[in-house]
Records
---
Amino acid sequence: MTLLFSMAFEPWVIALEPITGGSAGIGGIPSPTFFGWEPPRLLLLAIALLLVVVVATLIERIRTGAWGVTVRTMRDVPSAVEAMGTRTTTLTTVTLAVGAAVASLAGALFVSFMLSITPETFTLSIVFMALFVPLIGGQATAWGCVIGAIVVIQLTSNMPSAFEGSGQLVLAIGVLLILLIAPAGLIGYGKALVGWVRGRIGKARG
């Protein structure tokens, strides 16, 4: 449903040329300034990374709190949440709003670096890559999206010249391997590996 909405939204954006610039998009966006001072791009990158850490930390705290437990319970047993007096429709709306706020912040950061945006910027392949991100990093923690995003960027944008143009294929193969070898994602696999190493060390000491 979300994918269909995004496909229907793009022609609507192109049709509103006086507001959105049409197919040419919006260009010439000024760089961010603070009281007339334009920070260097390296400082903007550091601020963006700090925001990523802050948002991931906040979402992880929310996930492990009472609200996060209620949302996960609603996903598995919605009738139990309704029995507690919480409307699942309201909870779903709030959850989607939080996700939209995070996506809006990411879009603002993207535009502040690119200084332009067009309707074709976020294609269907970008949407699928966004779906792959938590699968690669791990869905059990908010940091899985951060790790997954780093892996996706490396496989699609920072590939060696010998593999240039094959990033999408490498990414697809990587997702399949992770789903087969580490269904809990890289973070889940890392935790399992650390537990195994600790177990081996404990047996060696015993």
Note: The radius of gyration is 21 Å.
---
Amino acid sequence: MPFYQRLHDELPKRGVRVVAAHSAESRKDLIRAVRSAVKAKAETIVVVGGDGSQTAAVSEIAHTKSALAVVPAGTGNSFALSIGIKDFETAVEAIVKGREERIDVGVLNGTYFANFASVGLLADAADDTSRPLKRIVGPVAYGVSFMRSLLRSRPFQMHVSWEGGELDIETYQAIVANGRYFGWQALTPDASVHSGKLAFFAVEGVSRADALKTSAALVRGDQVKLEGAHYFSASKIQIKTKPKQQLDIDGHTLGKTPAKFKVETKALRVLVP
């Protein structure tokens, strides 16, 4: 049974009144439904979906009195992990008897994102990953798209600036995270939705082998140990590249560089276990 139907059946049994329910066929549909719920002053807005769906909802819920309840049901559920939601059962527990917390949100070129943004190769791969493929093979879809994108990608020059530092490297990709997790692993030791800062990570390298090593390390969770790894935390980050590179927020394409990042602290109410 789909999570949406399971949730709709389970919540009334646990004493939670469902005021309205919508099935969104597209990102626009989801944003429209969430915006309507916020205008109706809904106390809690439950979003069933992956990181992309949560980011779409965050853009409407941030800085309002409504709280977001996350039910992980996507190919990637890193944001759910960042707030302690491991599976369907913990999501239900958070809705039924959890507590409300205020967490940070990231902003890229004026658009809110929940978990992470990517630059370059990872953004290209996310854009290349089709929804039908994700439904058929799940997370493997990202691996397939990554390899396709890698074959046509080239390293690029990247200038990064933040309060207290500057960085110039040649690389294939970079990640800026609001949440703690990239996939199932912590992106950096300090990454957190409560830190008041964004986490930056990139690895210097000009060969496809370098890009593959980085990808494998991200899966294992030991990426900060790589030779040429650069990572730090900051409240504002600016990235310029030559040539311009694709930008992505939680699986949603968002134009190209240059990129201006900032964090808005405690901007989002969420329900946690």
Note: The two ends are 23 Å apart (CA to CA).
---
Amino acid sequence: MARWLVALDMDSTFIQQEVIDMLAAQAGVEAEVAAVTERAMQGEIDFSESLALRVSKLAGLTAEDIAAVQNMLTLSPGAKELVENLHKRGHLVAIFSGGFLNVIEPLLTSLKVDFFTANTLEVVDGALTGRTLGPIIDAQAKADHLEKFAESQGISIENTIAVGDGANDVLMMERAGIGVAYNGKPKAISAADYSFTNESLVRILQLIPG
């Protein structure tokens, strides 16, 4: 039986929240950051530009603030079961996120997600600087990571499923063998082969033959 790769977005897909909005709440700038997040999700402004703008407002947050957000993360229905069932069947699961490794890495490591990548918040003297480090994980990066990771594992791109909810996931969904919008915004839904709303992520298993 062929191996498959299921790649998911993190925020509002694998988990129920938007991490950047949670960090913004810790910094007391939730409303202004949420407004920029929504515009980026709808594809009204460039993701990299919106990310820089939002991250700049997080300057001064501490390790304690990040830990507080980590403790509030809530998996979407069926997320843990999806990972477990994919592994039982010999398939792989990846997370390609425009969010932040600083926040999501412990959770993904504990769930034994096979591969994940996200943006890195710069920390100096124990506090966020309001900048990110390294290349930005935007729509193009997600699509490229999907292709590269599948290839590195000997998995045909036809045997990949990409799951996301916003404009930043469209390229990844179009590149994959199957694109799934999960609680999707209009741009994600129009790019998807399948669209699920408020259902268990375990339903994705039905898309894998056998």
Note: The longest helix spans residues 139-152.
